[in-house]
Amino acid sequence: MTSDLEGIKGQLDAFRADFDALRAEIGKVIVGNREIVDGTLLALIAGGHVLLEGVPGLGKTLLVRTLSDALHLKFSRIQFTPDLMPADLIGTNVVLENPEGGRRFEFQPGPVFSNLVLADEINRATPKTQSALLEAMQEKSVTIGGKTHDLGRPFFVLATQNPLEMEGTYPLPEAQLDRFFFKLLVKFPSADELESILDRTTEAVEPRAEPIFDGRRIAELSALARQIPIADELKKHAVAIVLATHPDNALATDAVRRYVRYGSSPRGAQALILGAKIRAILDHRYHVAREDLHDVVRPALRHRMILNFEGQAENVQADEVLDDVLEKLGSPALVG
Fold first, then answer.
1. What is the Cα 75 distance to its own chain's centre?
2. pTM for the whole thing?
3. Measured CA angle at 185 (ends 187, 131), to 5 deg
């Protein structure tokens, strides 16, 4: 029994070492944004997808490119534009002529057939094109002409989007938002960080990340994270947080009833649990604590709460409503 415990501790130590090494490699290129980097890596290890939101020029695309450099994974980039069509993403059947003069259909895969997919400025394409990613993100496959094509493993979508207030943007369909494990908000850098960015980007030699490990190691880390135990009490607490985001539930706060139209789906509860397990490992714990759950509430649920007209008119932020939920449930809100 002792040897088994020591073996698990050794695996968790290796987990933290690999996470720190990957974070450090990304840090060679990306300045600051520690929460964004950690949130992205956490979601990737959990097997989820990430939505990065922020105004242009804050390094969202650079973060994803740097992550691809630090991993032995096939990478593809898709620039979303208003004239982009679903076939431009997932591929299509094309007619080819045989040497004998006959014709046949052959599937030509699109850029979504990759391990790490950067969906750049995803909300500049029409909802029809955005929705082309639904099956790929959930089932990790693409169905065309009645035939299903597997995308392989691992498969991660890291999408960037501009705030909806900017011109030329379309809101993402609610069903697609729900398929993102985390939504991370990229903020403008501080004065010191901006100075470091200038130093790195205006010198003769630009830093570049080197490969750390491959998709197999990511799968191993994901499997290990799922073995972290969570008490029934904390599991019920996670369920209560999700239920409290629904305006018709008894746990809903006044802010939820006033500003929220639809609450989080069960995927939000899954993201809370998986995210909390990885947070526990990174904090040198062998079980999930309450603060681990609260650390991931904002990124896991902010995009799964749909505000009503009053909430949008008063410019209410989902994070504010989530803070109110956590306060009602008896614990201070922690930054996610």
1. 16
2. 0.87
3. 140
For residue 55, give the amino acid letter.
V
Collect the ranges in the chain with pLDDT lower than 50.
1-3, 332-336
Rg, Å, the chain Cα set: 21
Q: Cβ neighbours of residue 23 under 8 Å, at least 6 residues apart?
A: 37, 38, 41
CA end-to-end span of the chain, whole Å? 36
**Can you list the alpha helix ranges (DSSP code H) found in the chain?**
2-27, 34-46, 60-69, 86-90, 127-130, 134-139, 174-177, 191-201, 215-225, 232-243, 254-259, 266-282, 290-295, 297-301, 309-313, 318-328
Quick: pLDDT tens for 24-36.
888 888 777 788 8
Structural domains of the chain, with CATH? 230-336 (1.10.8.80)
Query: Beta strands 260-262 and 306-307: pairing type?
Result: antiparallel
Strand partners for 334: none
pLDDT digits (tens, 9 = 90+) for 226-281: 999 999 999 999 999 999 999 999 999 999 999 999 999 999 999 999 999 999 99
Q: Which two tokens stand for residue 166?
A: 């900017």
pLDDT at 3: 47
